[in-house]
Specification:
The structure is a single chain. The protein is an all-alpha fold and 150 residues long. The chain has seven helices and no strands. The longest helix has 28 residues. It is globular, with a radius of gyration of 18 Å. It starts with 7 loop residues before the first helix and ends with a helix.
Length: 150
């Protein structure tokens, strides 16, 4: 029938179109800012840029929405197409971190593994719902940097 009380069909052809749009929104809103921050963090090959770029992104949460990321990951558990999209984006994000570590002087497998560790750490952080204020996270930032970046 394609009849609703609202304007759903004005915006989307069907439910699948809505879900596709949601997935594209996630890629654009949660991946593009992250990739830009990672690129900026590695631009000068200086780990000191990390907090002002990627670290800020993770603490501030205005450019990267961890709840949105978690919701997409939850959806991926029940939809193989979404799972494939999440895996693809995870691979892109990990590769970006690996490149960042290469700019810091790490090579090959070590850069790849460090890229995985820092990314998996962050995904685990918000997926587990760690209860920590941004002030507390900022306070511990130098220690996180020491463990994850050096």
């Amino acid at each position: 029938m394609k009849v609703t009380r609202g304007s759903f069909y004005w915006h989307f052809e069907d439910r699948d179109a809505l879900l596709d749009a949601l997935l594209h929104l996630w890629e654009a809103s949660n991946t593009e800012p992250m990739l830009a921050a990672i690129k900026a963090a590695g631009a000068r090959g200086d780990r000191e840029d990390f907090d002002a770029t990627v670290g800020r992104l993770w603490i501030d949460e205005t450019e990267f929405d961890p709840a949105f990321d978690s919701a997409i990951r939850d959806w991926a558990r029940t939809d193989p197409d979404v799972a494939e999209a999440v895996h693809r984006i995870d691979d892109i994000r990990v590769a970006a971190f690996a490149e960042m570590f290469k700019s810091y002087g790490f090579t090959g497998d070590e850069a790849e593994v460090r890229g995985r560790i820092i990314y998996y750490h962050q995904v685990g952080y918000y997926t587990l719902g760690i209860r920590e204020s941004s002030a507390e996270r900022k306070r511990l930032g130098a220690l996180y940097d020491k463990v994850l970046l050096y």
